[in-house]
Design a protein that fits this description.
heterodimer, A: seven-stranded mixed sheet, four-stranded antiparallel sheet, 11 strands, globular, B: mainly beta, five-stranded antiparallel sheet, about 0% helix
Chain lengths: ~120, ~110
């Protein structure tokens, strides 16, 4: 299957600082990218959907000014957690899909473990 | 709201036996259903998917069954191996590449050697 590379895999930051997570589709063009958040022993919760060149669409309850998403190219999307606090500590996962009608598979990155201290 | 959920949070299976993981969904408009495997500290890994116009699909050691009448999805793993130990999620989505994938609550599969 196609590969989505997510970086970094782990990051520890101080409270109040910002952290950027990168998500790259290596061998396909991800017209749409999705960002998920996962707490321990829980499911993946969608945070936002971004289409290349457009503003991201955020799920209800997700602060768009806190979780900045950029999808400037068909192979790169970034999530920036601004002014991070300990409650932002979580596992963040990106996913990319092509815009082809009928294409079903979503390809996932390996996730980023964010710890805010 | 619409949701995808699982009946069993934890499933313990003897090595070599078959495993069956179940899932209930509520969105009758869903076009595709997908099973993912997630190992600790990693992203979800695609296992198998099925379109809404099918009721069964087989892969290598895995079979997905879809019962649209009762909105039920299951994943069968044949001859379960220790490497199958992980959390399994069912998910649903639409046919367009722009459509989000909604995950169920997950089932932890523990394989007993």
């Amino acid at each position: 299957g196609a590969v989505v590379s997510q970086h970094p895999s782990r990051v520890i930051c101080k409270s109040g600082t910002s952290v950027k997570i990168e998500c790259r589709s290596l061998d396909f063009q991800a017209t749409t990218m999705f960002w998920y958040r996962q707490f321990p022993k829980q499911s993946l919760m969608l945070m936002a959907t971004s289409n290349e060149g457009s503003k991201a669409t955020y799920e209800q309850g997700v602060e768009k000014d806190k979780f900045l998403i950029n999808h400037a190219s068909l192979t790169l999307s970034t999530l920036t957690v601004t002014s991070a606090h300990p409650e932002d500590s979580s596992f963040y996962i990106c996913s990319g899909r092509t815009g082809q009608q009928g294409g079903t598979e979503a390809f996932f990155g390996q996730g980023t473990r964010l710890t805010v201290v | 709201g619409e949701s995808v959920g699982l009946h069993l949070p934890t499933l313990s299976v003897q090595e070599g036996d078959n495993s069956i993981i179940n899932c209930a969904y509520s969105n009758s408009a869903s076009d595709y259903f997908i099973w993912y495997k997630q190992e600790s500290g990693k992203g979800p890994q695609f296992i198998i998917d099925i379109r809404s116009n099918m009721d069964k699909r087989q892969g290598q050691r895995v079979t997905v069954l879809l019962n649209k009448t009762v909105k039920h999805l299951s994943l069968q793993i044949a001859a379960t191996q220790p490497g199958d130990s992980a959390v399994y999620f069912c998910a649903e989505t639409g046919s367009g590449g722009y459509q989000k994938v909604t995950f169920g609550t997950g089932t932890k599969l523990q394989v007993i050697p």
